[in-house]
Amino acid sequence: MKKIFFLSLIVSSAVLFSACSHDQATTDTVKTNATGAAPAADQKSGDTTKNGTITTASGKFFLTEAGQPPKEIESYQVQLGDYVGKNVTVTGQYSGDTLFVGSIK
Question: Quick one: how far is CA 28 from the chain centroid?
Fold first, then answer.
């Protein structure tokens, strides 16, 4: 009787472990962002280079490209205030809709 109980315990554990492993595998295949939503298909990655004029409003900096709405920019490496009103080429990476500038020419 003890052998049958022990054997059924092992089989039950194996089935439970298998079910848990399957649930984890399917959960890991879909990555989500902080809000729990899947990332947008047009999410930007890598370096981006843009040309335009740097402007400022309400303590924020923007890059205005010809024929485009202003895009918010920030930088931990460059003093953006030194370039306000100047036509520049910026290179950086997006985080959401904000371009974090790494260099300006």
Answer: 17
